[in-house]
Write a structure and sequence with these properties.
This protein is 33% helix and 20% strand. The relative contact order is 0.16. The protein starts with a strand and ends in a 7-residue tail after the last strand. With 405 residues, the protein is an alpha/beta fold. The longest helix has 20 residues. Helix 1 packs across helix 12, helix 5 packs antiparallel against helix 13 and helix 7 runs parallel beside helix 10. It folds into three domains: 153 residues, NAD(P)-binding Rossmann-like Domain (Rossmann fold, 3-Layer(aba) Sandwich), CATH 3.40.50; 176 residues, Dihydrodipicolinate Reductase, domain 2, CATH 3.30.360; 36 residues, no CATH class.
Amino acid sequence: MSGIRLGVVGYGGRISGLIQGVFRELAADLQVTGIVDPDEAGVRSRIDSAAPGRGWAKAGGGIADDVTFYRDIDQMVKQGQLDALAIGTRCNLHTPLAIRAAQYNLPLFLEKPVAVDMRQAKALEAAFDGSQCRAVVSFPLRVSPLCELARQYIDEGAVGDPVHVAATNYVPYGTTYWEAAYRDYDVTHGLFLQKATHDFDYLMYLMGQPIVRVAATATRGHVYGGDKPSGHRCSVCDEVADCLESPQNRRRNSSGGTTSDHLCLFSVDCGEGHRLNEDASSAVLEFADGSQGVYTQVFYARRDAGTRGANVSGYLGSVAFDWYTDELKRVRHHAPFSAVEKASGGASHFGGDLELARDFIALVDHGADSRTPIETGLQSVYACLAAKESAEKSRFVNVRLVGQN
């Protein structure tokens, strides 16, 4: 297809980065011709900062005068002569907007999580039941080359039947969940939905089974959150010399996070009780065939402590990988051989974003299948919601399956 005309709902940092990066790497003539976003001034500023010709019609002279801002998604679809849609709003808006998109026969790129509560998830599933709208859900880990290689080994019998998986996610940039909009529980609904939605998805992909039962725990308030005043910032704080999260100490310690003035990670604005993001959370997972897994995510890790990956094992062997080291290790349990493979690093989301872009462009161009259709987004949300409920109620919780009445 020549000159893909893309309509975007919520032109934020994530979706704009994809469009100006991997989307246009694969489709140089892709143009954003319609936008729905209440912050028109901010979006136009972001457009102006893009290099001329980076997907903006007539962008060489400044603001792209062929980009039209619309009142809502319906107006944009009806008037915009679009080839595809992308939704990159805040998380609590993904579902209502995707439900609107489901009415139209346009390829859809949808950010995760696709829903933030059970009511939304069921409504979204109902909206796509029988819909002609086909989606690519933003799950780059599943389609990353390292994960695909692990799945290939498993399919070829490297572990025999997968019996167990152990997965970890030590997040070295976790401060963003307390000093930015991610700390707003009404938007995010916690870090199982924000972070583990990626991991539960790729774990189900590797094991070849949906998660059917979850027991989870969450630790809150041991590290972040606190009683500092609402709206408190480093620039008005008298503890910046000693606080490890102050800009000067982050620079001194090379500990990551923004090194400019920022919101306090220890203020009442971070929430309380179950409405406070987890410092760490874990889950025991049962898959449909009786195999099992464990998953842990930690948000106070820094620097070289960052790790993300899994070890899938069976009677014949194990396959383990870590995206941060870009390595995969295969061990044969009954032969004196082990092997390590090294992936090429440096790509966005470990190379997964480029693969998502390939799928989306191929879907728009010639109706190719999506490796992350709406069903994957929903099944991950159902597993995350079960983990969230389990952590709050201290009991095992069954996971709703897509297609279940």
